[in-house]
Amino acid sequence: FFFLAGHGLDPELVREVFCGARDFFARDQKTKDGFKAKQGEHPFGYQSAIEENIRLDPAGQEHPDQREQLKFGRGNYLTDYNNFMEFGCHRPTRGPRPDDRSVVWLSDATSEPWRRRVDEYFEGVSSLGHRLLRLLAISLGLEEDFFDASFTRPLELMNLNYYHAQKAKLG
């Protein structure tokens, strides 16, 4: 992880996305569960590590991870992920895959203005990622477009995370 300042994303856009995420995670459990992935939609959708008793370190964790997530990404991600899970690295050639760059939502139970702002944020961060790849190439003494051919169909996924406050056990 790293923190990037001076990225050019509109601060009001970032604020609106984070406020909308806060409002989403404040909803009742039944509403949030309406965003859970169905067959063929994983890894998108809502997930509660608390409800699902997910422990990243089962031997050392007394309680499940105290986080909730809302994941979404491009239609390409879903297509390519499911194809990989079915065939692994040895994917049979079936001709060109459709290029679905739309952001996939698993439920319509969100406010339309917030969805548009999240879509706009997703596009901004995607564009920023491509600019960072060009800067990385230059910093390595490579041609600016060195990575472009490898990222014509990136697997872009966005997580909105909410971590529940925990009491610390000191001493």
Write up what this structure looks like.
The chain has helices at residues 11-25, 29-33, 75-87, 112-139, and strands spanning 45-48, 67-73, 157-163. The mean pLDDT is 81. The radius of gyration is 19 Å and the shape is globular. A three-stranded antiparallel sheet has the order 1-2-3. It starts with 10 loop residues before the first helix and ends in an 8-residue tail after the last strand. 36% of the residues lie in helices and 11% in strands.
Rg (CA only): 19 Å
Helicity, as a percent range: 25-40%
Tell me the span between the first and last alpha carbons. 29 Å
Q: Return residue spans where pLDDT drops below 50 for at least 5 consecutive residues.
A: none
Task: Provide key terms for this protein.
about 170 residues; alpha+beta; 3-stranded antiparallel sheet; 4 helices; about 35% helix; globular
